[in-house]
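From the pipeline queue, job 12 of 40. The input is one protein chain; the requested action is below.

Action: predict structure.
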Amino acid sequence: MRHTLSHVLAAAVKELYPTTTFGIGPAIDDGFYYDIDFGGEKISEADLPKIEKKMRGIVARNLKLERQVRERKAALAWATENKQELKRELIEELPEDEEISFYTLGDFEDLCRGPHLESTAEAGVFKLVKVAGAYWRGDEKRQMLTRIYGVAFETETELEEYLKRQEEAKARDHRKLGKELDLFCFSDLVGAGLPLFTPRGTVLREMVSSYSLSLRARAGFSKVWTPHITKTDLYKASGHYAKFGDELFMVHSQVNGEEFAMKPMNCPHHAQIFASKPRTYKEMPVRYMEATTDYRDERTGELGGLSRVRSLTQDDSHVFCRVTQIKAEIQQLVQIVRELYETVGMAKMRARLSYRSDEDKYLGDAKLWQMAQAQIKEAAIENGLDFFEAEGEAAFYGPKIDFMAEDALGREHQVATVQLDFVQPERFGLEFVNEKGEKERPVMVHHATLGSIERFLSVFIEHTGGWFPFWCAPEQVRILTVNDQAEEYVAKISEKLAHVVLEKPLKYNELRFAIDDSNESLGKKIRRAVEMKVPVVLIVGPKDAESDEVSVRLRDREEKIKLVELEQYLAAL
């Protein structure tokens, strides 16, 4: 249905703008899009109602979608005759033995594999929602096309529910909330994809990062530190240079001309720490962790808020273990993932177990892969994970588990990962001495609980709508004064807040609080605290001072408590 509607969109555009040429128009989750070259004519969202009206007219005509097959020569002639150069490119790239099919829709004809509905009358309900730019074939060296997005559902109710969710998503957009809540910003002078975190945003990112690291510290991980640049020899040895060399930011020494790279990942560095001294089986497993910023030369057009950046901070960790220890290490990491995502309110998740296929792209002993894949599956079953298996989705160096968590709007996001690696230990010659005095090769396990902290925060901000849990809120408590006649009492409350110790999920030395004793009205102070989504607001006036009470305003309720109960009350929150 959605793919049929992409053709209806193209047919409508062709009627309205006869000189247009077309790229591709696939079905996607919840809808469809088409990439179109309007020949320099500017198309905006203001044009969507006109195009949508034309689409409805085509749908109402009950047009049949008829398939025909052409030989390659005839297909190329069609592309030339209709001045469809992008389609010609697609035809030329098709394998010699592939059937080349076309679909007609009234007077409109398009290169397409299908499938489609029999008639436009079956097309359901739809709405055009967005216009965006898209480089042809995703290559920023090629022409910029206009991408028109639409959504489609079987019923009007489903469409209304979708549009309602989209409105809620707009209100929760992390870029919008990041500005409103003063969490992060960008600067043209610093560069695209390089976020700057404000004091408030820095508190948030450090709280979630510290929590993630604390869970692994409890599981026996030790902190390490690695520099931000490295000789390219390291990535050539690990194999990353050959695979990801175009993502590297290069740095050249002005002293001796040595070539360095800004590190895009941390695993080769951690491997060098493991290799820095002799190891025995008694030390295994060896567990390292590091929250550190990496750098990747992402394309400008693919950057977006905190979701895709050029400087990404990973709560990275690596385990060097024996083959027989793989399952136990995976189980421990799975438990850490579960605990963290339950804490942040995203407990509903499923896992993809990614295995190797019969292709030649995978490195390492096939028998070792089979053993590891079996251990991954056993760990998933024993931990009661909601999982599915995906053959051919493994990394080239080993099988993995990718976790997908659901947010408050029902959207699924890939979050944590556990990846086995048989290649880097081999490439770097990592080894330890076993019980027999023989040298044995360890297996490397990559793990990130948050993944990219920036990307996690983009998800977390939208999941919470900016109402962060009390433990990680940048500003946990704000004291509002009714007037200036309770200064001594406010000082007394502040003294108490400075000594509140929160026990869970971490121990903190002090509460994060601020005082709004401005001369503005109480109503305005309350509105300002709500706009900044401060979880706890304490309202203090002369009457409170007399009765030794405090008015506590939470998001969902308001109550008065005695001052002597305040420390215990906040610790409980």
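Job complete. The first strand starts at residue 21 and ends at 22.
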